[in-house]
Amino acid sequence: MIAYEGGGVNGNPLYHWIGLAVSTAFMLPLPVAILAGWTPPWMRKRQAGIRLRAYGILCIYALMLVNGIPRIADASFETVMVWTNVGFGFTAAAAVLLLLSARKDSGARTADPVEPREG
């Protein structure tokens, strides 16, 4: 059993490490792959806003970083609050990017593969 004797407001750093590890494993590979040029099969139908979507997901991941790392470092309350406010900026940027992605996708034509007709 792991006992944490810290008296700060940041909580147990183990939980923040676990949260960052899980978010890194699940949120980081897809947008990095998209920005590298690979498109997942389920996203190939609408590709107009895919890069914006990838940047939006990276903003959400950055939000997790700026909220988790100061708490892991057991920073002061003021420092944690400053980085939490920076996280609100990443949240707003992610919302804007994801909305722009949806708008760009809705205005684009679908990329259906052309199938040859018989006859």
Outline the structure in words:
- There is one protein chain.
- The chain has helices at residues 13-27, 29-36, 50-72, 77-107.
- The protein is mostly helical.
- Helix 2 (29-36) packs across helix 3 and helix 3 packs antiparallel against helix 4 (77-107).
- The mean pLDDT is 86.
Sketch the major β-sheet.
none
Distance between the termini: 72 Å
Number of helices: 4
H-E string: HHHH
What best-fitting shape do the alpha-carbon axes yield? Answer: elongated
**Which residues sit in consecutive blocks of at least 5 with pLDDT less than 50?**
none
Determine Rg (CA atoms, Å). Answer: 20 Å
The beta-strand count equals 0
Which structural class best describes the helix and strand composition? mainly alpha
Strand proportion, as a percent range, falls in: under 5%
Query: What percentage of residues falls in helices of 4 or more residues?
Result: 55-70%
Q: What do the pLDDT scores average to?
A: 86
Briefly say what this structure is:
The protein has helices spanning 13-27, 29-36, 50-72, 77-107.
Secondary-structure topology with pairs:
Blueprint: H1 13-27, H2 29-36, H3 50-72, H4 77-107
Helix pairs in contact: 1-3, 2-3, 3-4
From the structure above, extract its key features.
119 residues; mainly alpha
